[in-house]
């Protein structure tokens, strides 16, 4: 069961700028020493009050830690807390010195002044119109972050995913999520259909929503892709989507037509593809045809004599299946050589390369690793 914890941030020990994974010290009433908290915290600062939901863990090296699932932030109420908060650098235009001046002037009402009567900051030495604009902009940005985080976490979106959503959509996050939470699955790495579907459910989007049906079809096709299928028979796909999404066939069919019109999927013959896989598959086929047509211009030669020459040049005797592979390279033009380690694949490639270079052809090679590249010469 999640545990609640409330306290004031004493210091930020570590923060990853990419995913905002944070390690911080939290001062909690009733505890002598600050508590170590870990989790995704977006744009928080010393002095802020946090209401956390999470669980206690014990790290073998660092000891007791509180792992954050979700959180809410509150601006500090005491003068000391406000000074630390404003002096943390979170609000552009206010540093430690200026924070001290502001609190000395306005006391515990400083944050209310910034929120509702910001021009009064001119009463403080060193603040002019330019700095007020800077502070106003930064304050509005922080307000947007708070609103987005509160909205997402009130719909049971974890702090980690909430950070990703805000980084993707910024102040438009609430609008995007309300209009179509399934966009998250397409736009944000790590948020798949199932997570987006849970968020949609919390927002009250019905199970038979067209948005859900479209996103569900894409999800099912991606699941098949993860199993190695670049496409799937059209009719069985409809049935599989109906089973997984638990909605009527008619809704699935309509959603597929919509995805076709949006060019998100392609139906080619009896098979349905995600559009990117259809482009890849047809592109590969077209390139293979092009290579095959060009390869017809390669000079013909007697394979027997060429293989004898390659064996002498390499100082080896080729096995029967290796000789067959070299002969096929002449007749077939395009081939795939497979086999486990030590079965002679590199020897076959080297023999083919040497033969064609000897005939005056230019040979181009590519390899996924440097080690493999060095072995092909």
Query: What is the subunit arrangement here?
Result: single chain
Give Rg in angstroms.
32 Å
Largest sheet: 5 strands, mixed, barrel
In total, the number of domains comes to: 5
Written description of the protein model:
With 377 residues, the chain is of the alpha+beta class. It has five domains: 3-74, Nucleic acid-binding proteins (OB fold (Dihydrolipoamide Acetyltransferase, E2P), Beta Barrel); 79-146, DNA polymerase, domain 1, CATH 1.10.150; 155-202, no CATH class; 211-276, Arc Repressor Mutant, subunit A (Orthogonal Bundle), CATH 1.10.10; 303-375, no CATH class. 51% of the residues lie in helices and 16% in strands. It has 16 helices and eight strands. The protein has a five-stranded mixed β-barrel with strand order 1-2-3-5-4. Strands 6-8-7 form a three-stranded antiparallel beta sheet.
Brief digest:
By secondary structure, the protein is of the alpha+beta class. It is 51% helix and 16% strand. It has helices at residues 79-86, 96-106, 110-116, 129-154, 159-169, 173-179, 183-187, 193-202, 210-226, 234-245, 249-261, 275-295, 303-314, 320-331, 345-358, 370-375, and strands at residues 3-15, 21-27, 35-40, 49-59, 63-74, 231-233, 265-268, 271-274.
């Amino acid at each position: 069961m999640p545990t609640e914890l409330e306290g004031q941030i004493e210091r930020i020990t570590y923060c990853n700028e990419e995913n905002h994974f944070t390690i911080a010290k939290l001062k909690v009433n009733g505890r002598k020493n600050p508590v170590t908290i870990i989790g995704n915290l977006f744009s928080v600062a010393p002095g802020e009050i946090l209401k956390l939901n999470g669980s206690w863990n014990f790290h073998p090296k660092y000891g007791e830690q509180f792992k954050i699932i979700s959180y809410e932030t509150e601006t500090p109420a005491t003068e000391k807390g406000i000074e630390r908060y404003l002096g943390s650098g979170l609000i552009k235009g206010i540093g430690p010195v200026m924070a001290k001046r502001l609190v000395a002037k306005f006391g515990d009402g400083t944050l209310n002044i910034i929120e509702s009567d910001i021009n009064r900051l001119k009463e403080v030495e060193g603040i002019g119109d330019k700095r007020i604009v800077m502070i106003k902009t930064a304050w509005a940005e922080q307000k947007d972050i708070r609103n987005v985080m509160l909205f997402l976490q009130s719909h049971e979106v974890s702090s980690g995913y909430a950070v990703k959503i805000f980084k993707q959509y910024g102040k438009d996050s609430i609008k995007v999520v309300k209009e179509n939470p399934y966009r998250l699955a397409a736009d944000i790495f790590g948020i798949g259909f199932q997570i987006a579907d849970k968020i949609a459910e919390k927002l009250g989007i019905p199970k038979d929503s067209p948005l859900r049906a479209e996103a569900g079809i894409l999800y099912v096709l991606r699941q098949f892709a993860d199993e190695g299928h670049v496409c799937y028979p059209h009719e069985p796909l409809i049935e599989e989507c109906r089973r997984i999404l638990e909605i009527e066939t008619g809704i699935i069919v309509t959603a597929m037509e919509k995805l076709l019109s949006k060019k998100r999927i392609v139906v080619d013959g009896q098979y349905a593809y995600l559009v990117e896989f259809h482009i890849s598959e047809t592109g590969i086929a077209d390139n293979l045809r092009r290579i095959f047509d060009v390869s017809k211009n390669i000079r013909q030669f007697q394979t027997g004599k060429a293989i004898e020459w390659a064996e002498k040049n390499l100082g080896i005797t080729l096995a029967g299946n290796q000789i067959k592979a070299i002969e096929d390279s002449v007749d077939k033009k395009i081939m795939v050589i497979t086999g486990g380690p030590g079965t002679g694949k590199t020897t076959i490639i080297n023999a083919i390369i040497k033969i064609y270079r000897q005939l005056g052809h230019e040979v181009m090679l590519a390899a996924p690793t440097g080690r493999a590249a060095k072995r092909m010469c």
